[in-house]
Each structure stands twice: as structure tokens, then as C-alpha cells.
Write a structure and sequence with these properties.
heterodimer; A: about 200 residues; about 0% strand; globular; B: about 100 residues
């Protein structure tokens, strides 16, 4: 499956680069993207609802599931600060970029507003790379730990990386992945704003 | 996530729509539990794979058409380093939490 994903991503980038005019672009990036996303999220929900074992496993884990996004948030922000210090760039701005948890369309504009266009591109790139690495590396991540794709995907586990994660990790991971992505999506604007205020 | 920059209100609506969609899917799946017959398993698997391919293609199309790739080399290595470190520490922290909280 990873071959299909890599091929689709490369073909999409090439097609977008060659034919990225207004009408075609809107049809693909707005309508096709949103329709595919909603169908997938619905189907994932359906598979989970129809699976008795998956619901039982989630009930057993209970509120402990919420520890996953909190761990991802702490790990990401710490990585941004430590990485910033190691690379000789502003550690607060770097931590703010990491605090997007993969949500690049939110992080880029927020960072550009606070730190300028250069940091906006940086915030975008950090989170863009995070999403791409999760999509391309999902099977390798799964070998490290069953929850590793969820941890890597961050906020994107609520949408773009959800289908890939559930497909590889199993339907019982749907609620963990979606909850993690959902909580991180709520945390992302707050933590970026909090870090910006420290700068 | 969609490729354009996303203001906070739009982002909130986006999150809400996804939440409602997954809940609708769960409800439909739950209602379909008692049905007898072969079930939609194989057809759903094919639909999922096809839709994942469409989703990833659209994601790539947005990246290619926005000219976003052109801006990446300027910040590329530092951003890649931070992204890899974010993933590594997230995985590490989650593994530690799983062990501590005995999450299966």
C-alpha cells in the first residue's frame, strides 16, 4: 500500500506543478480533497462502529487515551526548543513551529504574523515535513511501536494521516488516533499563541 | 489538512465537520452491527484504498500547484531536523506514557 501512497503523492505533486491553474486546482484541492477526506472519515467511523472488539478495547483504555496527545504535545514542544538550541536558531520560534503538531496550514500563517514571512515558511516546512514523513514512513514507524504512527502524525491524525494510520494499525486504533488528532488540533493554536507571547 | 492558510474560525468549523462525520460513521456502523449477510467488508476495503489514493493525490496536487516546494530549500534542512526531532521525541514520550499507564 505504501507504494500506492508514494506514487499518488509524487503524481499529485507533478500534476499540480504542471497543471495548477485556477479551475483544475479548485476541483482537485477543494472538491476532491474534501470529498475523499469526508468519505474516509465516515468509512473509518463505520468500521469502528461495526466492530464490537474495537469499542471494547477503547472502553478498557478509558481516559488514559488522553495521555497520548499530551505526551505528543510535550515531546513536540521540547523537540522544537532543543532542536532550535542545537541548530543555533531562536528556540522559542522553533518550539512554536513544532507546536503546530503537523498542522502546517495553521502554523505557517500564525508564525508569519508573529515573526515575519521567513518564520512563516519555516513553520509551514516543519509541519509539512512531519506530515510527509508520517505518510511515507508509517510502516517503519509501526515497527518501532504500535502507537508511533499516532505520535508522529500529531494533529494530522484527525484527518490526512488517519486513514493510513488505521489501515496499518487496525480499526481499534481509530478512536486513539482521532482523539489524539482532535485534542492536538485544539491545542495547536493555543500552544503556538502561548509560545509566541514568550518571544 | 487543506493546503490554503486557515484562519481560526474556519479551522474550528473544519474540526467540527470532521467530528460530526466520524460520529455519523460510528452511528451507522453501530446500527449495521446486527445485520446478517456477507457485509460490506471487501467493498469497503477497496473504497478505502481508492479514496486514500485520491486524498494523497489531492494533497500532492495542492503542494505542487501552490509552488510551496520552491520555498522549502531555503529552510529545508533546519525544518527537516526539527520535524524529525519532533517525531522522535513524540514517539519516545508516547512509548513512555504507554508503559507507565499500561495502555495496550
Amino acid at each position: 500500500m505504501i507504494a500506492y501512497i508514494a506514487a499518488a503523492l509524487m503524481a499529485g505533486i507533478a500534476a499540480g506543478y504542471l497543471n495548477g491553474s485556477g479551475a483544475v486546482r479548485a476541483a482537485v484541492t477543494d472538491y476532491a480533497f474534501n470529498a475523499a477526506l469526508l468519505i474516509l472519515v465516515f468509512v473509518m467511523g463505520f468500521a469502528f462502529g461495526a466492530d464490537r472488539d474495537a469499542a471494547a478495547k477503547v472502553r478498557k483504555a478509558g481516559m488514559k487515551v488522553l495521555l497520548v496527545p499530551l505526551a505528543v504535545a510535550c515531546g513536540s514542544v521540547l523537540a522544537g526548543a532543543v532542536g532550535g538550541l542545537a541548530l543555533g536558531i531562536d528556540p522559542i520560534a522553533s518550539a512554536a513551529a513544532s507546536a503546530g503538531f503537523g498542522w502546517y496550514t495553521l502554523t505557517g500563517p500564525l508564525m508569519a504574523q508573529a515573526f515575519g514571512a521567513g518564520w512563516g515558511v519555516f513553520g509551514f516546512a516543519v509541519n509539512f515535513f512531519r506530515e510527509m514523513i508520517t505518510i511515507i514512513g508509517v510502516s517503519a514507524l509501526l515497527r518501532i511501536d504500535r502507537y508511533a504512527p499516532v505520535a508522529a502524525g500529531g494533529a494530522t491524525c484527525m484527518d490526512t494521516t488517519l486513514p493510513v494510520t488505521v489501515r496499518y494499525c487496525g480499526p481499534e486504533m481509530l478512536v486513539v488516533a482521532f482523539t489524539s488528532g482532535f485534542v492536538l488540533s485544539l491545542l495547536a493554536p493555543l500552544s503556538i499563541a502561548a509560545l509566541i507571547s514568550l518571544a | 489538512m487543506a493546503v490554503e492558510g486557515m484562519p481560526l474560525v474556519q479551522a474550528s468549523v473544519y474540526v467540527l465537520v470532521l467530528l460530526l462525520t466520524i460520529l455519523a460513521g460510528m452511528g451507522t456502523g453501530y446500527a449495521a452491527r446486527g445485520r446478517r449477510g456477507r457485509g460490506p467488508g471487501r467493498a469497503l476495503e477497496r473504497l478505502t484504498l481508492f479514496t486514500i489514493v485520491v486524498l494523497i493525490f489531492s494533497l500532492g496536487f495542492g503542494i505542487g500547484s501552490d509552488g510551496l516546494l520552491a520555498s522549502l530549500p531555503a529552510v529545508g534542512l533546519n525544518a527537516l531536523g526539527i520535524a524529525l526531532l519532533s517525531i522522535a521525541l513524540s514517539v519516545l514520550f508516547v512509548a513512555a506514557v504507554r508503559k507507565g499507564a499500561r495502555l495496550e
